[in-house]
Design goal:
Length: about 400
């Protein structure tokens, strides 16, 4: 079976500013970020023949193609499950390119998630439509689990009970993200670091999750351009090669609320993705030099460290306390500030930071050589992730 591993690379990244009130339509945000990503790649709209989006994207490919003057699209697809899809569009783009279906594929996510519909305000309008996709809400809404924070608080509390983790352990993730955001001029929380005391004194949102355990609500757009490795070498000096990309759904999977599993603080869908990534890339967790871990809520960073094999079950709190996630640590994490510190663009801005780490242009570039970067999508939902690598690394 032919593998798509190492056949495609990211050559362009582009983003609007990240704000709380963009003052313009989501359609315009989408067009702006795609145009910037194409400029970064040294390409034009005429070069684009494919697009991959989230099903939650409100700006369809036909609208953005019209706005930018893209003449024709040979390939387009959509990935469901919200933030769990953050890396999956890159997988689809890489497969399309490796099989010759498309030559230049654009991925974008654009929304006014702060000035428009706020995810933290409760179920969106489509949640009240009686479809199979939404049937799980019948089992959680009556108990007051209406928002993502309320749903993920269940996992967090169980993890604390099972492994002895504390709110301070979650807080260290938040402090680190804000530390990195404070030196990132594009981050919403630029020059605004926090302390662990700030975290502990922040408002309780859904016990045990505090305000500073929860990601932002942001307006903005982020786009990624993918093409073949051969073409990439002619376009940019340091293409980020997609050497692995995977999706996963685990047993008894329910969106945000897989509470019927024997162990609700294990995430078999993440372990499934990890297994595929290491096999495709031909590496182990020890070979990963930096990671962008989806941080919609701080406890999920701890669970990912364990599911991806960077530490054992229940050991993530100690792994973080030992400084392993710092820039000079074993595994620098969320060097852009993450969704906690930079912006919440459904994880696609995390893919862009993974590319910058490969290029060596992150504002918080680790001192060591970065060859393999892990980028993950949302957790507690069907999951996706990818591994980016510097060109020429066997």
């Amino acid at each position: 079976m032919k593998s798509f591993s190492g056949q495609a690379a990211v050559v362009g990244i582009g983003a609007t500013e990240f704000s709380k009130d963009s003052g313009r339509s989501e359609w315009r945000l989408a067009a702006e970020c795609v145009n910037l990503a194409l400029q970064d790649a040294g390409l034009t709209p005429n070069d684009v023949d494919g697009m991959v989006l989230f099903t939650m994207e409100n700006n369809p490919e036909i609208a953005v193609a019209r706005a930018l003057g893209i003449p024709e699209l040979k390939f387009f697809s959509r990935i469901p499950h919200g933030g769990g899809a953050a890396a999956a569009p890159l997988q689809q783009a890489a497969i399309a390119i490796a099989t010759g279906v498309a030559e230049v594929v654009v991925v974008y996510r654009a929304f006014n998630e702060r000035s428009g519909h706020r995810f933290g305000s409760g179920p969106p309008p489509f949640a009240y439509v009686t479809t199979t996709d939404q049937e799980y809400r019948n089992w959680i809404n009556p108990y007051g689990l209406l928002t993502p924070a309320q749903q993920e608080a269940m996992f967090a509390r169980r993890y604390m009970w099972q492994y002895g983790a504390t709110s301070e352990d979650f807080g260290r993730v938040s402090v680190l993200s804000r530390k990195h955001a404070a030196t990132n001029p594009k981050a919403w929380f630029y020059e605004r670091p926090i302390t662990l005391d700030d975290h502990q004194n922040s408002a309780m949102i859904a016990d045990p999750l505090r305000l500073l355990d929860c990601c932002q609500e942001s307006d903005g757009g982020q786009a990624i351009v993918v093409t073949s490795v051969e073409r990439a070498r002619d376009l940019v000096p340091n293409p980020a090669v997609i050497v692995a990309a995977a999706q996963g759904i685990g047993p008894q999977q329910i969106s945000m609320s897989s509470y019927s599993r024997r162990d609700i603080v294990s995430m078999p869908e993440v372990e499934l993705v990890a297994r595929q990534l290491w096999q495709q890339a031909g590496i182990t967790p020890n070979d990963v030099d930096a990671a962008i871990l989806y941080d919609a809520f701080t406890p999920m960073v701890l669970l990912q460290l364990e599911e991806y094999g960077f530490c054992g079950r229940g050991e993530a709190a100690d792994f973080i306390r030992e400084g392993n996630l710092e820039l000079d640590g074993r595994l620098p994490v969320n060097t852009h500030g993450g969704q906690l510190g930079e912006a919440y663009i459904h994880g696609v801005n995390g893919v862009a930071e993974g590319v910058r780490l490969i290029r060596g242009t992150s504002v918080n570039q680790p001192n060591k050589r970065v060859e393999n970067v892990l980028v993950t999508g949302g957790t507690a939902v069907p999951h996706s992730a990818l591994v980016l690598r510097t060109d020429g690394i066997s």
